[in-house]
Amino acid sequence: MITTRPKTNKALVFIIVLLLLANIAGIIFNFTLMKKRNFHKEMPMDRKAYVGKYLKDELKFTDAQLKQYDSLADLNKIETKPLFDSLFVEKEKRMKFLASNNYSDSALQQAVIRSSERQKALDLSMLSYYKKVREICNESQKQKFDSNFFDIMRHKRADIKSPKSKK
């Protein structure tokens, strides 16, 4: 049995060295990848800027149309902020409510109903906003808007922050 112990130690040392080299290689690879992508300079646009760019470049909005869009987007942000904030707060309240009611079936149903009512209000507000943006379009722009505006709305928002992260 004494002869197998040194072989086991050599094997363990070899495995440790191999893992250490693999970790170092991974760190170097990730560092060079991050440097190539230059993550710090590639911040995504906020939704208003992204949609504004789409409206200008793809739909060929005039300056007057863009000005209307800017006013509409600013007003929409003010109107929907409380809805988004309440949804965020509601999630926390919902979990506390469910826990205090032992996740009973009736508590689950109540939580879903309450959540769906808040989501419905937000959806109505957002769809009304999209309708107003569409009303700015001329007839040819409306066709393009109808065919691919949904793809634009998939863009991840860079400006969303939870209510807790206010400055």
Structure description:
The chain folds into two domains: 4-41; 47-159, Four Helix Bundle (Hemerythrin (Met), subunit A), CATH 1.20.120. The protein is built from five helices and no strands. The chain has helices at residues 4-37, 47-57, 63-100, 105-136, 139-153. Helix 2 (47-57) runs antiparallel to helix 3 and helix 3 runs antiparallel to helix 4 (105-136). It is flat, with a radius of gyration of 27 Å. The termini are far apart. 4% of the residues are buried. Residues 158-167 have low confidence and may be disordered.
Briefly, what CATH class of the largest domain?
A: Mainly Alpha
* CATH topology-level fold name of the largest domain: Four Helix Bundle (Hemerythrin (Met), subunit A)
Distance between the termini: 66 Å
SSE pattern, N- to C-terminal:
HHHHH
- Total strands: the figure is 0
Principal-axis shape: flat
Largest sheet geometry: none
Share of helical residues: over 70%
The number of domains: 2
Indicate the structural class: mainly alpha
List low-confidence stretches: 158-167
Number of helices: 5
- Overall mean confidence score, pLDDT: 82
CATH architecture designation of the largest domain: Up-down Bundle
